[in-house]
Amino acid sequence: MAFVYLIAGFILLLISGNYLVKGSVQLARYLKISTLVVGLTVVAFGTSAPELFVSVKAAYKGVADIAVGNIVGSNIANIALILGLVSMVYPIAIRNRTILFDWVVMTIVTLLLLFVGYNGVIGFLEGFIFLSLLAIYLIWSFYKSRQKINKSGIETPAPELAIHWAILMVLASIVGLYYGAEWLVEGARELAQSWGVSDRVIGISIVAFGTSVPELATSLIASLRKETDISVGNIVGSNIFNILAVLGATSVIKPLPINNPGMFTIDLIWMLGLSVLLLLFMIPLSKGMITRWKGVFFFLTYLTYLYFLFT
Hints:
Blueprint: H1 2-31, H2 35-60, H3 64-89, E1 92-94, H4 99-117, E2 121-122, H5 124-152, H6 163-195, H7 199-224, H8 228-253, E3 256-257, H9 262-282, E4 288-290, H10 292-310
Antiparallel strand pairs: 1-4, 2-3
């Protein structure tokens, strides 16, 4: 049954990712905001829903290392695995300089998580701070995008769907991602537990990969549709959402004790290193390209990380 769950979950995630991109592009046209902002917000929130579900569930079951490891592992997989695979299939063009601001936000919240984690617990106060920062980030992103479009005077393309159908498509896609990730994670978790590995390893590798499949499906489909701003924005935005929204909401509901210090002395350092590498690979920010060879490098880096994780 584990393999049935894996296959069914993956198929559902691919279908849902396709319609999430289509619906989100239509919403961007109605709201007159850039597709980058949609990727950083609506799409990123939708593809982060599985991480939220898994982390809350793990916290209530008393396995905080899976809850936190799921987020740390997902953020590592988003950059090294997801962007690596997507750019190997279809090179990703960097066309929007505002991605630098979002990269800075992603790096700052990662450093904040590193600082908070050394206290040994992510509690209600830390969760409240994370959620407050998320609200500020979202308001700022929408404001700057609308301001830029209004100043440029460029007409955004007309929507092709009625707004209620676009909203319904996005919501239905998020539900599909939720159940697809649930099935995939359930199958992956059964296999991982049979291998006898630790909660940290399960959370950072198997569960994180399962909950990152929505990002893979969405970014790959967005890239093939030449919506590269959504493809990159989805990854950066998802990493921001994972920390601020998922860990923020989870720790507000139930404090998360850090039982394995390796998560902050090893795994978060890898996440920061990959963030720096992502910036270098995107330069120049207005005409950059994450080429196939860069994708191969990302992918090999992820395999190296997994090797050290399991040894």
